[in-house]
Amino acid sequence: MALTVDQVFDKIGSFGRYQRLLLLGCNGLIFLWLGFPMLIMTFLTADPGWKCVANSSECLFKGSLPASDKSRCNISRSEWTFTDDLTSVATEFDLVCDKAIYATIASSMIFLGFLLGGIVVGPFADKLGRRLTIYVFGFIIGVFSLLTAFPHAYWLFALFRFIIGFGVGGASIGIYVLVTEMVGVRHRSLIGVSLWYFWTLSLLVLDLLAYLIRDWRKLAIACGVPAIPIVVGWFITRESPRWLVLKGKLMEAEVVLKRIAEVNGKEMSKEQFCVPEKQRMGDLRDLFTSKKMTHKTLLSWYIWFVCGMVYYGVYLSTPNVGGNLYLNFFLTSIIEVFCIPLTIWSSDRFGRKKIIVGSLILAALSSVGAVLFTTEDNSDKVYYLRFLCFKYFYFSLLLQRMLAGRIIFSMIFAKVFITITFDLAYLYSAELFPTVIRNIGMGTSTGAARIGAFCSPYIVYLATVHRLLPYAIMGGNALLCGLLCFTLPETANQPTLETIDSQTPTTTSVNAVKEDSNRNINEEEKAALVPGEVLHLSNV
């Protein structure tokens, strides 16, 4: 009897020693290839502040100048200097005042590359395999992360950041798909949680390195050098057996599965493989076949766009808040550790829709809090709003007297709720789209998140117009998105739609099985509910 790959994994171990070692190795790739390059720009482009030089004639003539970014633009460059021992691209290339926008452009380049890399990786991985995809794009990340430390021209630095983003866009998808295709259906949900934890850990280590290494070139080297030797993992990483079977390379797939069985202490079955038949995958037009489907598609895109914009916007705005840059980055990173279990528990307890809506609205209120807590208006209305917000978020009285502290606490709460939304968006969007177009629906949705991430540096740059304008924009979008999500259906414990035209549910959700003891769902049906299960990546 011919067996499917899932049935083979059930026999040789769906999450044994081999898969745990693979997951640990891929978490190392996440650590060095994704976390470091994506958010190191928070430190590489940081503006450390300024002060008048000793005996400055212009400063003495104009009197005491407020220590704001705009004030230094009114005096000669020779009359002021940067304050801290921190060096950055901003200090080296003098990206302040009229040239401050160039630091923003450099930050956005990695997100533009991230977007394009995600587009290219689908056909590349489908044609040449997951293993080659990971290490080709990963090698690009490692080499250009190191080269970032050496440019003496701004345009070359920005170009390298774009190339790094291109590599991240490809490697991130390749890593996730390889690991999910190497485990059984029951354990796929654990993969995303594990990878997300290592992403958070990489940010905490990045913060520590930035605190210890204040020179931006040395920091880039410290983060780039370890990323190159890890490509030796090519020699111990095996290709996805699912991809090999799909391509008809049954002998190679058997070799990989035998190795997995050996490491897991199992015996390989002698049955033949069942080669899956090619099925028609949906295309972009299928997302707009009806008003209902169009509504779901556009809102899914908007949810992901807001998540990308606010998530990265919070990180990139940490240098503008004031206070300690490294403490701010640490607080906005460590909070993610608690968001993941909270997301899992709350979505199962209250449903996907309620948590998505509630988190977006609370993220909006947190962003608005940054505006309310810093206004100089002492009217009764503003005081009343302040009181409600402080009562709701339980801010300490000490922080009410600290401008930077109030803003960073608002940002932390915004980060908590947008992280919950981001985590849940993977599952919610996967359940919104019917199976035949789930791949293209999820692919375009993640693309919307990358567009939002690309916009985030420019939104943060608007702080040069008014320091609170970025929070108002991010909060306004989160609020609008949350209100619009009221019109979406609940998907928890609901049947999963398989077709577009009939919108008829033919597969019962995994959670619904718990409530129906008379209904037995097999592993193949469960697989349809797990994001990323589709072998074809051309639409991602």
Automatic annotation (TrEMBL):
It is found in: Membrane. Coiled coil: none annotated. It comes from the Eukaryota. Residues 21-493 form the Major facilitator superfamily (MFS) profile domain. Keywords: Membrane, Transmembrane, Transmembrane helix. The chain crosses the membrane at residues 21-44, 100-125, 132-150, 156-178, 190-213, 219-237, 298-314, 326-344, 356-375, 381-400, 407-428, 440-461. It is a multi-pass membrane protein. GO terms for cellular component: membrane. Its main location: membrane. InterPro entries: MFS_dom, MFS_sugar_transport-like, MFS_trans_sf, Sugar_transporter_CS. GO terms for molecular function: transmembrane transporter activity. PANTHER family: SOLUTE CARRIER FAMILY 22 MEMBER (PTHR24064). This is Major facilitator superfamily (MFS) profile domain-containing protein.
